[in-house]
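Bug report (template v2)

What were you trying to do?
Predict the complex of my protein with GMT.

What happened?
Run completed; filing so the output is reviewed.

Input:
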Amino acid sequence: MKIGIVCYPTFGGSGVLATELGMALSAKGHEVHFISYQQPVRLYFHPNIYYHEVAVQNYPLFDFPPYETALSSTLVHVITNNNLDLLHVHYAIPHASAAYFAREILKKQGRDIPFITTLHGTDITLVGKDPTYAPVVAFSINESNAVTAVSQNLKEETYKSFPIEKDIKVIPNFVDVARFRQTNKDHFKKMLAPMGERILAHVSNFRKVKRVEDVIRIFEKVHQQIPSKLLMIGDGPERQHAEDLVRSLSICNDVRFLGKQEQMDEILSITDLFLLPSQYESFGLSALEAMSCGVPVISSNAGGIPEINIHGKTGYLSEVGDVEDMAKNALHILSNNTIFNEFKEGALAQAKGFEKAHIIPLYEKLYEEVLRDYRK
Ligand code: GMT
């Protein structure tokens, strides 16, 4: 099949998932065309992969250059020039409406191409349902030829928030367990934790919804009881606040802000516990990648997180904001090696259920169904 994938190119979960999906499809012989405003961060070369950049022309009149229009036009060109069979857009805003526009333009030119929209999270729960975007989001979801959501929770949230007439299929996110596995990185661990301290980690885009302050406060409580280090990976609007808090709590020597990192499998290989206290998380792909490296997860019980983090088996779930409980659970896991190893095994076993080899065929089947129905 010739598939066009539209996604955000950044470190966010939807872009990572879309890139991993495209690369897995290309390895199976499909021709995959990525369309975005920058090369996606995890995109590596493969003969079946193409990358098309959306160039946004500026003009003195534009206070807000019209990205969506540029994207629709790029889609029209890419689909026509490369004879694509279907489009798969990740994150509804503005990708679904741009795909709708491209499909309708191409219809007028006698070319029919269906598009599939995958909903990822904040495109529904935060940004999407804001009145600024909601009518367009609802319309373009309903106009999609198929719609998927990355968790059961996100599917339910979508029906609650919008007048959706379409069936939403849940296809969970996946992980490459062969890549995300614990490997021996003792030299690296010794550099960060020379006295054998426990290493805790958090990965996110440091937005409010991630409750980064809770991460620091949980760590502070753990740190009071056991020698430990915290790795903060990623970047975003709350980073400065988090750094200030670390200074005010006098734990600077034990907290490292690493910024955006590509080799997450290596960092997770030296991590003992992953912290994800988010206000909402449709899925929590970063937690799944941690589990795949045998790292237990301390998280909130928000959104779709309970669909991957199993309380008492792969880690623990607490109410959003209950820093006390999260710290207590973290200490329970880290203080006893037998318990720690049981959780490590639980986390790895759970991640194997989301192995990419199980999930990619679900997307391929959906593509085939959509093409069959569309060509009827
Ligand atoms: O909003 C974000 O945190 C980024 C966002 C994205 O689309 O890049 O992440 C969402 O999609 C991920 C991949 O499906 C999920 O694992 C995240 O849980 C989800 N984030 C939220 O729901 C907050």
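What did the reviewer find?
The CA atoms of residues 19 and 42 lie 6 Å apart. The pocket of GMT is lined by residues 12-15, 17, 91, 120-122, 150, 173, 205, 209, 280-285 (CB under 6 Å).
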